[in-house]
Amino acid sequence: MILLALKEYYDRKAAIGEMAADGWIGGGIDFLLELDWEGRLRDITDLREGTGKKKQPRLFQLPNIGNQALKHTNSGTDANLLWDNAKFVFGLGPKGDLHLRSMISAIDQWLGPTDDVGVAAVRAFFQQGLEDRSHFERALQHPEYGEVLGTGSVRVSFRILETPYPIVFQSPAVVAALNREEEGTDKWATATCLITGEQNVAAAVTHPVIKGVRGSQSAGASIVSFNEEVFTSYAKRQSLNAPVSKRAASQYTKALNMLLESKQRLFAGDMSIVCWAEHEDDFESEFSALFEEPPKDNPDEGTERIKALFQSVHSGSYVEDSNRTRFYILGLSPNMARISIRFWQVGTVYEFASRIRQYFEDFTIVKPPKEPEFYSVWRILVNVAVQDKSENIPPNLAGEFMRSILEGTPYPETLLQAVLRRIRSDTEYRVKPVRAALIKAYLNRYLRFYPNQSYKEVGRALDTHQTSIGYHLGRLFAVLEKIQEEANPGINATIRERYYGAACTTPVTVFSNLLRLKNHHLAKLDNKGRVINFEKLLTETMGKLSHFPSHLNLQEQGMFAVGYYHQRQDLFTSKKADAAGKVDNETIMKEEEEV
């Protein structure tokens, strides 16, 4: 199913010219060697664009005759056709002769005897260099380009003077050869393709590699691989155990490599995620905004994209009747020379848009003015990671969280454990808005799947009618802290730094002492109206508590944090008279004193 969906994506992009045709692959060329018809070097053209160390090769559709188009093996004999890195082109290093013979062999194998003067000139270039390395001196000792060519890392191809085509691999003879379907000469290398269902087609013994998965080998890794005898059966070699035609293998890997280089790729922890639709759809580009890390040089860009996604899923853009287009989400993780499938989600655009809309609703909460309106998954995970660093996001947690969003299932309990652990350890900024929103989201979704809990649905702001004892304990703790802050302006550390951890886990051990401290703090307040306000608030809050529990479970610890956050936000919110003529208690007391 995964490979078939990727192959169909290839077909869609190839139909509009956005994907390299079979036998070709997108890649860069740094230099062109200008040859005469005898294969002698006449000039060098620098194709790189940009300045200084930021020069980039010019992109072309390059001949693709195997995995060497993405990575070379250590054999030294897997040259590309009419292009390669300078190490192969000039026969550099201890395997230089092997490299040159391999370049010649690729020409002979794929093009054979030909009347094409360009191909013949390039073959002569390699043959002359193999016999006498001084043939290459004009290039390697070039005053401007010799040093960079000598590193062996830049990519080189060829142009022949006085021919109608700009680069040799673009000649009609080469194009025709690469467009011919390869024939399987090995009786074991023909099979029925598991992707297309075609029979007796040339099967790929090894599949092209995948590049762009975070943490995988830079040269690429395999998504389909049978590299040990124990993985094989019935005397079938390597990938013939799960036969896929060479053409289909090339197409699905091109599609996946293209996705991994596009804006439809995103990261969560060590996982790389790509998404695509069955047909062209705006949701393809909008979806990644929910999960991706914002650019470091423009963090507001991520916020704006999240806002745009929120507006699109709430505006009715993705209604059920018109959005039955299938949508695919693939999560990949590195595993040495292989790539592991972490998750695979298939649904319609409407289904995924609905689940994302629910995600946004889950995470709505009252916030300070400068707080982002919407949270991406990356921002949420960073705020539960050690030291708030993305590299410390637990790998499994990222995958489980994303899966719960996309499937509409309860958020993982490990997420609640992680955020509570961070709140207890982060003494300065314990219950940040994003952490409170996460706990609220977890608790409400848990309640939908497992009703009859000790709490009712958590609102976005203060709810004095909440049934959770943990919620009201958190409120009480927030009020006691506020009293301490007003009694001791500029205090360096409050009861939050010292008592929060015990208060939210074993309330009975600390609240009696905190209530005694409260009396001392109230006595220091000069504003008697303010004292009365606090006493009324304490009476209302403690009226919800029948006792101080000896222990709070995880859900109630979460409710404690949300209650604390809601009450803090309510205490710091300016309560000006509203349209109904309400005024805050402090204003009333002040007016009474003046009378």
Please give the structural blueprint:
Elements: H1 2-15, E1 24-29, E2 31-35, E3 41-46, E4 58-63, E5 83-85, H2 86-89, H3 96-111, H4 117-131, H5 137-140, H6 146-150, E6 155-160, H7 172-179, E7 190-191, E8 201-202, H8 246-260, E9 265-268, E10 271-277, H9 283-287, H10 299-314, E11 326-335, E12 338-348, H11 349-362, H12 377-382, H13 395-407, H14 413-425, H15 433-449, H16 469-487, H17 495-505, H18 511-523, H19 528-542, H20 554-572, H21 585-594
Parallel strand pairs: 2-6
Antiparallel strand pairs: 1-4, 2-3, 5-6, 7-8, 9-10, 10-11, 11-12
Helix pairs in contact: 1-8, 3-4, 14-15, 14-20, 15-20, 16-17, 16-18, 16-19, 16-20
Walk me through this protein's architecture.
The chain folds into four domains: 18-180, no CATH class; 188-259, no CATH class; 262-449, no CATH class; 469-572, no CATH class. It is built from 21 helices and twelve strands. The protein has helices at residues 2-15, 86-89, 96-111, 117-131, 137-140, 146-150, 172-179, 246-260, 283-287, 299-314, 349-362, 377-382, 395-407, 413-425, 433-449, 469-487, 495-505, 511-523, 528-542, 554-572, 585-594, and strands spanning 24-29, 31-35, 41-46, 58-63, 83-85, 155-160, 190-191, 201-202, 265-268, 271-277, 326-335, 338-348. The strands form four sheets. Strands 3-2-6-5 form a four-stranded mixed beta sheet. The chain is elongated, with a radius of gyration of 33 Å. The termini are far apart. The model is unreliable at 181-187 and 574-595 (pLDDT under 50).
